[in-house]
């Protein structure tokens, strides 16, 4: 049984007189003013075809959203979240659990929280931006835009570590498959592990020999997995087994890892970034290279921030596109979010181009400023040198917003698995939690 909103609490305690408790109370009131938010969450957490009026009481939509907010604001694990919902009077009251009411365990919290999609969280953020515009916390006149990389939850990739991942994961799946079908295979993990460790400190000649043997071991293990896959497909009784789906997903990735290892290590070929597999666990991971800085293994994120420090919009890009190709799209999205084009838009120097100035002004933006503007005069961008310097200082504030998101809201590294969709949901959950806290502090001020 599920309810959209838990309207009556069982002897809910009063919140203590503390700054953080006051912030949580303001956030609670903000969510109460927008029941459409709970309707959006309820659409995700209630599975299609499941009767809502029977069965054990599940978490309501507002409880799931509030638990997500608590988790992201404090960067709790699900085990820590379950403990603090049991132990903290503030969080119990905020998440609508009564004083004597049982709290969902960590597995139930994870199951419910992870059902909220990125699209739903984006719509929730637009509701919050509308609240800020209505209350006057955000004017929507000036926006600043920048990009930043966010890591996925993978180890630093190397050819040897990827080959080792292929061997150990396929061996685990083969152990599960032999419980269902009669497949013949051998466990080569010990040999593969020795080759992987030996590669670390080996010279060039020795490294080549070790790589050849490691590729041979991985290729043999992939052959065992393909044999098991054929047998599982023939056995129709187990057509829906989890190991079958995992093998179907993992075997093509293993072939890509073997191919790029042969090309890079044995043939000395330079493999394009778009063809590389950086992780068999998060194969969508992109290689983000920015100047002379160390590469980042994750996804590129573009943020639009207002003068109130609210994140008005967020875009997760595919690959590593040049910033200058993204400026017009970001302004158009900001126009859709705000309901009208902002008067002033400020960008980092990487977004600058003369074509962008003309195209953005055609969208209704009066002043377009790039912090580095080689080949573009100040007069083309704005009315005066004084305004240019002022807007350039205004843009610097987005660096603080990005730092706040990464240090306090967990945006430095996405810890959710599940590909690009899970990555987007994690990013938007951090953005929504940050905006709720920012709005609460504006209201308390």
Which regions contain 5 or more consecutive residues with pLDDT less than 50?
A: none
Shape: flat
Order of helices and strands: HHHHHHHEHHHHEEEHEHEHHHH
Number of domains: 3
Total count of strands: 6
Alpha plus pi helix count: 17
Derived from helix and strand composition plus strand pairing, the structural class reads alpha/beta
Helix content: 40-55%
| Biggest sheet layout | 6 strands, mixed
N-to-C CA distance: 40 Å
Mean pLDDT: 91
Radius of gyration, in angstroms, nearest whole number:
26 Å
Question: DSSP strand (E) fraction?
Answer: 5-15%
Give the structure's gist in a few sentences:
The protein has 445 residues and is an alpha/beta fold. The chain is built from 17 helices and 6 strands. Strands 1, 2, 3, 4, 5 and 6 form a 6-stranded mixed sheet that branches.
Would you mind describing this structure in some detail?
- The chain is flat, with a radius of gyration of 26 Å.
- Strands 1, 2, 3, 4, 5 and 6 form a 6-stranded mixed sheet that branches.
- It folds into 3 domains: 98 residues, no CATH class; 181 residues, no CATH class; 117 residues, no CATH class.
- It has 17 helices and 6 strands.
- α2 packs antiparallel against α7, α9 packs antiparallel against α10 and α10 runs antiparallel to α11.
- The chain is α/β, with parallel strands linked by helices and 445 residues long.
- The two termini are 40 Å apart.
- The longest helix has 31 residues.
- α13 links the parallel β5 and β6.
């Amino acid at each position: 049984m599920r309810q959209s909103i838990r309207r009556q609490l069982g002897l809910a305690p009063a919140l203590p007189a503390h700054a953080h408790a006051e912030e949580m109370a303001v956030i609670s009131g903000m969510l109460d003013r927008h029941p459409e938010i709970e309707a959006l969450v309820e659409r995700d957490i209630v599975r299609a075809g499941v009767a809502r009026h029977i069965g054990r009481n599940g978490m309501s939509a507002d409880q799931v959203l509030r638990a997500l907010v608590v988790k992201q604001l404090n960067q709790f694990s699900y085990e820590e979240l379950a403990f603090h919902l049991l132990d903290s009077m503030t969080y119990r009251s905020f998440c609508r659990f009564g004083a004597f009411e049982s709290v969902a365990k960590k597995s139930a919290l994870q199951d419910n929280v992870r059902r909220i999609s990125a699209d739903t969280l984006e719509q929730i953020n637009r509701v919050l931006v509308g609240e800020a515009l209505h209350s006057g916390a955000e004017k929507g006149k000036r926006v600043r835009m920048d990009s930043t990389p966010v890591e996925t939850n993978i180890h630093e990739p190397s050819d040897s570590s990827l080959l080792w991942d292929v061997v150990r994961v396929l061996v685990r799946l083969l152990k599960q498959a032999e419980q269902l079908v009669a497949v013949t295979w051998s466990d080569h993990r010990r040999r593969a592990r020795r080759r992987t460790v030996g590669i670390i400190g080996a010279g060039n000649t020795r490294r080549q020999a070790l790589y050849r043997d490691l590729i041979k071991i991985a290729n043999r293990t992939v052959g065992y997995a393909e044999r098991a896959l054929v047998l599982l497909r023939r056995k129709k009784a187990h057509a829906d087994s989890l190991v079958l789906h995992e093998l179907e997903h993992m075997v093509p990735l293993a072939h890509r890892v073997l191919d790029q290892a042969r090309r890079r290590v044995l043939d000395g070929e330079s493999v394009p970034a778009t063809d590389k597999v950086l992780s068999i666990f998060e194969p969508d991971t992109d290689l983000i290279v920015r100047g002379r800085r160390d590469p980042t293994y994750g996804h590129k994120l573009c943020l639009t921030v207002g003068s109130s420090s609210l994140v008005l919009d967020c875009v997760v890009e595919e690959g590593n596109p040049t910033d200058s190709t993204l400026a017009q799209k970001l302004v158009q999205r900001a126009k859709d979010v705000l309901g009208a084009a902002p008067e002033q838009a400020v960008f980092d120097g990487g977004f600058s181009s003369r074509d962008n100035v003309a195209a953005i002004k055609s969208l209704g933006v009066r002043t377009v400023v790039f912090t580095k503007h080689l080949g573009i005069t100040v007069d083309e961008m704005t009315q005066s040198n004084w305004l240019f310097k002022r807007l350039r200082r205004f843009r610097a504030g987005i660096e603080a917003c990005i730092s706040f998101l990464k240090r306090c809201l967990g945006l430095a590294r996405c810890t959710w698995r599940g590909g690009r969709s899970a990555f987007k949901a994690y990013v938007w959950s951090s953005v929504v939690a940050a905006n709720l806290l920012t709005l609460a502090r504006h209201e308390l001020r």
